[in-house]
Amino acid sequence: MKKNAYFFTLIFLLTPFFIFSKLQFECLALDENNNFLFYSIEDGITTETFAENTLFYGKIYNDTPDVQTVSFRPDHIVYNKNSECVFIQNRFGIFAYIQNENAIKALPNIPNFLSGEEYSIYDLCKITISPNGRYLLYKKAVSPTRADIFMYDLASSQSTMIISSADRCPGEIVAKWSADSKYFIYQKNNKVYYFSIANYSQNRQLDESWRFIADIKLSNGEWTGDNRFIWADKEAIWECDTVSFAAKSIYSNYLQQGKAIASLPYSFRQQSHNFFYFPQSSQMLLVRNNGAAMLFNPNAPLENNSYLQLDTNIRVEKAEINQNGNGAVLLKILENGTFQKKLFLIKDKNFIAYSNNHGKINDFTLDNETLLISTSENAIALNLDTNETLWEITQKDIKKILPITTGHLLFGKDIAWLRNHDNTLQPMFLCSAPAGGLSDSGTPIVITSKENIYEINKNTYMLTQLSSYPETIIEVPQNSKGRLLTREIKKSFYHNVVCFKETSSGKQIDIIKEGKLNYTLYQPEIKGDLHFKAGEKYEIALIFDCLQSAEGIFEIIEALKRYKIKANFFLNGDFIRNSPNLTKEISLQDAEICNLFDSNINFSGATYTIDKNFIQQGLSCAEENYFSVTGKNFAPYWHSPLFIYNTSIVQYGLDCGYKFVSYQLDSMDWIDKNDRKVNSKFYMNNEKLILRLFQNLKPSQTVLFSTGFNGIERDEWLFKDIDTILCEMQRSGYTFSYVSGILNRYRK
To answer: Which 3 state secondary structure label does DSSP give 689?
Structure first.
């Protein structure tokens, strides 16, 4: 069929829009030789960087499909100079762009999406490559909170499980390698351990209990250039060199966790503080959320250190410093209901706001003295030492820039470009799936959002730009032998799978295998309850209580946005007065905002007379505070502080126009580890809390979570794992409602 200029009107615009949390497939094309093309949609999950569609190409040989991924969204990118390979990790697998072959290849013998491996719908456990380019480390989830660590030999293409049941830590790196590639550090049970490559190769690895290093998070430690591991904890900066590993292990009962090399200006908390160490310059960055980021020099007076103020709505997303002590910090800011980014340069030990008039900041990469800045409108290379702009390219939607031997890889919305040394751009490969079809030779053809048409090499997956549209384009999933179709799957984290149905026999061949998790989800079977309606069996409401402090709000909103989940926030007057900015941000979310009284008063005490006037004043005061900050009213629902109530209290609330909301499942994330009355029986770490949560979760429940520290002492805070909880809830088939919906449908 001859194509006009509007031929590729984006197929995705013609696709019905769904709100779901599962992966969905749509068929594009099938030719007479059984070459096919289809793509995936991820409408239930929000990503901030790359488009959510992935393109697949293949052919059916003798009833056997051969499927390949032909677009490579770089959720995580690693460049190894020794091998001159760019490793691209995304939700569908791990791929390598090999420079000297100018080709992308899926790494063999690593389980991936096309082999039926788990498709990850939330943050990846980020792979890491040994500096010598020999080994790749990746994780395979075995529970919502646990994962096995595998070591992949890039020379032999063999993969071996080397560590069982490590902390899953989604969004964080699997391990951290020493500069000489002889050791790496990994996290398990919120502790870090070392792993010796030499001992492993000689089959004399010490038992894990003998390889303990420190009681910290992996993200709060880093290797120095001379193979010392350095970290922040409690009141000090600590270090341990590789020579001391064996001695420390043998005498662990008698030695401290390491050698203290510097005192900290405040007590460092693993759960709420962050430590960055930059080996090239030996610089340190201390981050205290809801406080400040500080360039810390232990040898200088405290007042001489530079600070960057961090409000409750700001987090440090990334920081890098070069050998000259210059670098950059990328902030993630919750503002006007959405997340934005702001870049600060580090120059002469000071923070300087970077002003870019061309577009929104997406990311940066530090390449020695060169700062590579990617924005929504352009890509910029800035010499940090001289402030000179080395080059600039006007190109929309550049998400990340990666320096490689042949130039720079610019990862855009649809295409990865190579910036050559003469500042020209060359299309390389697809990052996401635009509209597409098949040429008359069976070659995949795609068109980008700029209406440029490309041919995909079936062997290398590299792009060739075409000067004109091919004479014939196949864009229907049907031929004379059969057709592509999708088959719905009810008990899977896929919405459907792609099949080929043969016309003559009616036989169906699955092209995509049903995805299987490596562990069992918690999916209750509900029978015989008249309150449940068809399609509503797995509906729940999440309640987040906001009492005094604002810790956790940023992470909770971020996770809710990621999964497009409705939620319910109950705000009291203390929270509104203490955190007006976050109160406003909460009011701008897809949430039902309810009244939690003026203060966290114990209604069972003898201090107050709990009568109608008292309840009315407490509700009214919180209500007025909320309106003064947001210009909005609470939804007409409330619950008493600590959920202490009786029939009179419930009626007093009704008289004020507020319906009482109770909870059916308490996450128990509010229990103080030092509370002797409850500690021994009810205090649990996050892993146990999550396990208990899913064991007791049932449809139609209101599920209670806490926010803030609120004077409570815990080793872990459940809101730090809210991403994991929401992901597993969606995987288990739960949908989310406001409390109003739950009350109306199930609490009659």
So the answer is: helix
Question: What pLDDT, in 10s, does the model give residues 252-266?
Answer: 554 556 889 999 999
Q: Give residue 689's pLDDT band: very low, low, confident or very high (50, 70, 90).
A: very high
Count the Cβ atoms, other than its own, within 10 Å of residue 7. Answer: 17
Based on the fold, state whether residues 595 and 701 are members of the same structural domain: yes
Report the alpha-carbon distance of residue 430 to residue 746 in Å, rounded: 47
* Residue 117 DSSP symbol: P
User: Across residues 48-73, what is the average pLDDT?
Assistant: 86
pLDDT of residue 578: 95
The answer to whether residue 389 sits within a structural domain is no
Domain match, 467 and 610 both = no
Nearest by Cα to 185 from 158, 216, 159 = 216
Name 730's bridge partners: none
In this predicted structure, the answer to whether residue 8 has a pLDDT above a threshold of 70 is: no
CB count in 10 Å sphere of residue 81: 11
Q: Tell me, yes or no, if the pTM score tops 0.90.
A: yes
Question: Is 352 inside a domain boundary?
Answer: no
Q: What's the CA gap between 504 and 487, in Å, rounded?
A: 19
Report the C-alpha gap between 611 and 500 in whole angstroms: 69
Domain membership flag for residue 51: yes
Instruction: Provide mean pLDDT across the span 196-201.
Output: 95
What is the per-residue DSSP string for 534-591? TT-TTEEEEEEEE-S--TTHHHHHHHHHHHT--EEEEE-HHHHHH-HHHHHHHHTSSE
